[in-house]
TrEMBL record:
The keyword Transferase is assigned to this record: yes
Keyword Transferase attached: yes
Name used for this protein in its record: Benzyl alcohol O-benzoyltransferase
Source taxon at top rank: Eukaryota
InterPro entries assigned: CAT-like_dom_sf, Plant_acyltransferase
Keywords attached to this entry: Transferase
Homology family: Belongs to the plant acyltransferase family.
Residue runs in coiled coils: none
Amino acid sequence: MVIQKSSLSSLVFKVRKNQPELLAPASPTPHELLLLSNLDDQMGLRYQLPLVQFFPYNPSMAGKDPVPVIREALSKALVFYYPFAGRIREGTKGKLMVDCTGEGVLFIQADADVTLDQFGSDLLPPFPCFDELLYDVPGSDEIINSPLLIIQVTHLKCGGFIFVLGMNHTMCDGSGIVQFMKAITEIAHGATKPSIIPVWCRELLCERNPPRLTCIHHEYDQLPLDNKSLFKPYHSSFFFGPKEIHALRRILPRHLADSSTSFDVLTACLWRCRTAALQWQNPNQEVRLLCIVNARFGPCRFNPPLPEGFYGNAFVFPAAVSTVGNICRSPLSYALELVKKAKSEGREEYVHSVVDLMSINGRTCFTRTGSFMVSDLTKSGLRDVDYGWGKALYSGVAKAGLGDLPGVSFYVSYTNSKGENGRVVPICLPNEEAMVRFEKELNDILNKFKDEKEEPMNILSVSGGPKTLGSESKEGDVGGSPLNEAKIMGMSEAEGRVGIS
């Protein structure tokens, strides 16, 4: 079953917040200026990214308050991660740096008149009343001269709590912030210092002398903006478990099914569904899939590797480029081949070329027009974060998108209410009608080669109860064109770490 959750939610609750406070490091820290890397300060990362964790009531911790525990551990962790307690400054030619002032991060304690059960049996973004769970302190959402982290811990009526962290993305990527969060948990469990000592070393991702472009970077092509790429978003999310990945593999030629990871297969499917749902008028319109790869892992891993403890941004996003017509009318294997090719381009030299591009062309933003970016957080370790009350029921992004860039989705590890392990994918589209079209495209693909004895896969919708997948689809028709792919599913899978943003 694919579980879907839409922007529509009837749950409303009140949150009483204490006065926000600046939480400084527990002991004196160096006062210095630290340059950010060329990957850190590119325009496409000058946004706040919220992460949310829902923790259930733990009877073994009855009578213990998580707020003072987290607050004290955070203050002690900032001694080691003292740049987080500083402020971003902008230098000549837009270069960003961290002024390590020791001012502190924003910390908010709150109480909500709601229980965890009221959020539903499956905790999927978007979450109701999320603005109440991460207080928008006036001026705190600025990138320059503002706190670099905002953390709110909200007590629930049931004894559980919600931890929300808003991070300035110029400071770190997914791996970096999880490293910091795990430092907090270790100290909360009684450690005097983190098991991994952080290092700055941002100069490792600054331009070469002289800078030189050695790769083609279609992800930074500058194209005119359009209303398909910038819009007031409508949010939803989908859960994909083993059955859904199995269904996708069945429509692929055997050699692709055997050689492609779940990430590859799912990403190709979502790219196709999203492209069709947007209803581009021009079939020759270029569209891009930006596939994040990280210099810490896999084929993109540096040699020698980035030092242990490095917590800066270390990812790039090679682009697969095609047209609307080719994506929607070709077999799914066409999009899959493009995804795999783009991912394979993400090697160490590609990272250095992107770093040099930022120096040569200025800190440009990645292409927004027709772009869909995916970031895999399933191996980031985020769901293993435990402040002493056990692991969270949901631990991931609060919604799709990055700042005012709606075309960004994340893969988040999740175990649903039936005990099935898989990933949640938040999706952002211009309106509810586009989301319905996306859902139909997805339904058609997942049920394309359904065994006659199998029950059709269902989507559980917040706004209307279960819907039978494939009830409106025509045999052999996906996105308005026949598919001639083999009815074969390859079971082997060489999963590796994909990019983590």
